[in-house]
Amino acid sequence: MASFVVVLLSGAWLAIGGATWWHVSALGHFVNSLHLWSVELFFAFMVIHLWAVFWMAAWRGRRTLTWVTGVLAFLGSIGTAFTGYLSQSNFDSQWIGTQAKDGLNAVGIGAWFNVLNPAQMLLWHVVLLPTLVGALVGGHLLLVRRHGVVPPIDAEGDE
């Protein structure tokens, strides 16, 4: 959760500074790096958590919705990271965008999700997807608090 908070705070700092200030400012380079590495940690912790709860069969005992909100938060985070790569405003983001355009058009969603429009991708990355991921993470945590953690598989009276 700490890395998620740092992602949100550093992302808000980058957004307040404008769309490209981190390319020309030493402070911007620092904040951009802080944002990148907190995202890397967030994903590492999320993958470790996903593996752990998968092997513990954490969906047992009426915890299916908890599992589903966690998976949806993970998928939403992947989408947020993808739009972050598209918002870099460099040649890497242009290459990623042109390759993604073909893939998204191939599955039929290119008309709704224009990866070659930097303003649209910045909106998705800064406002829409973080709001979705934050709501899913919050809902996931509330469900964990409500239902508790799953008991071990071989526990007496397993739910």
Strand percentage, roughly?
under 5%
Helix proportion of residues, in percent? over 70%
- Assembly annotation: single chain
Task: Give the N-terminus to C-terminus distance in angstroms.
Answer: 28 Å
Structural class: mainly alpha
Regions with pLDDT < 50 over 5+ consecutive residues?
Answer: none
Number of helices: 5
Q: Got a strand count? A: 0
Mean pLDDT, to the nearest integer, reads 88
Major β-sheet, in short? Answer: none
**Strand and helix order:** HHHHH
Rg is 18 Å
Which outline best applies?
globular
Layout of helices and strands:
Blueprint: H1 2-17, H2 26-55, H3 64-86, H4 91-106, H5 118-147
Would you mind describing this structure in some detail?
The protein is built from five helices and no strands. With 159 residues, the chain is an all-alpha fold. The two termini are 28 Å apart. α1 (2-17) packs antiparallel against α2 (26-55). It has a domain at 44-147. The protein has helices at residues 2-17, 26-55, 64-86, 91-106, 118-147.
In short:
By secondary structure, the chain is an all-alpha fold.
Task: Give keywords.
5 helices, 72% helix, mainly alpha, 159 residues
